[in-house]
Design brief:
The protein has 10 helices and 10 strands. By secondary structure, it is α/β, with parallel strands linked by helices.
Length: about 280
């Protein structure tokens, strides 16, 4: 597939998906929906791709949601389509937003407005780096358009039910600073720098052993909301899948032989925030 409304970039082991309709505030229509499915499929299936960054073209918008000029073209309309969507047999309305099994790290570089479906895609990420002029909101509230790309489920998991319901019910728009205060944004950075900061974070993630990182993300995602006993069972399953990997034996060797910046006082620590005595 040749992409016309998104960009799919490769930077070593890092991939970048960029919503690319800046004249439409990067709104998602039928064409972008199909291109997003293809791009996320490539990332999911490519063993050389370790981290995804999601961002928007231009300086004003990350993504302002669905393209309402397309009407109901993205919405299931027949009884058969609606039933399949209800059963979870469709990837999502605005791309594959209903996928829950991507256990590689995903970072959103929020470089402007993240409204409605754009907020939902920001919530799809594991971490959100917001530029200081960015804003977030369930703005589709005023048009009687519900959340269909995970917002009603992911937003409460990120900020808690009370704050999520405030945003969902009122449709209020919040600043990057308020998003940071409620935990929706992980960091706020100067305008024009979110992608660079996301790349810096992604590059660090690429230096870490991957199996335990992915199994820990899987355990957290699958176990969230489950009874504690079930969550612990999922954690054990994921742990036992990664602990016997060659990467673990190499990690133990590096720890014991102090063959790592974090274990040596002679080199700068690599792990962010690490404090040495």
């Amino acid at each position: 597939m040749t992409f016309t409304q998104i960009e799919y970039e490769q930077h070593g082991a890092i991939r970048v998906i960029r919503f690319n309709r800046p004249d439409k505030r990067n709104c998602i229509g039928p064409t972008m929906h199909r291109e997003l499915i293809e791009a996320w499929t490539r990332f999911r299936d490519d063993e050389s791709a370790l981290v995804m960054i999601l961002t928007g073209a231009g300086e004003k918008a990350f993504c302002a949601g669905g393209d309402l000029s397309a009407g109901l073209d993205l919405v299931p309309s027949t009884a058969e389509e609606i039933a399949a969507h209800d059963r979870g047999e469709r990837p999502g309305i605005l791309g594959p937003s209903r996928w829950t099994d991507i256990y590689k790290p995903v970072i959103a570089a929020v470089n402007g407005v993240a409204y409605a479906g754009g907020l939902e895609w920001a919530c799809f990420a594991d971490m959100r780096i917001a530029e200081e002029h960015a804003s977030f909101g369930v703005t589709c509230r005023r048009w009687n358009i519900g959340l269909a790309d995970g917002g009603s489920q992911r937003l409460p998991r990120i900020v808690g039910m009370g704050r999520a319901m405030e945003l969902i019910l009122t449709g209020k728009v919040i600043s990057a600073a308020e998003a940071l205060s409620m935990g929706l944004a992980n960091e706020v950075v100067p305008s024009g720098t979110s992608l660079a900061r996301a790349m810096e974070l992604a590059q660090f993630l690429c230096t870490l052993p991957q199996p335990a990182m992915r199994s820990d993300k899987e355990a957290a995602v699958r176990g969230y909301g489950q009874p504690l006993a079930e969550g612990l069972r999922i954690e054990a399953e994921c742990f036992n899948r990664s602990i016997h990997r060659e990467e673990t034996r190499e990690g133990l060797r590096r720890f014991l032989e102090r063959d790592h910046p974090d274990r040596s006082t002679d080199t700068p620590a690599r792990t962010p925030g690490l404090v040495r005595d």
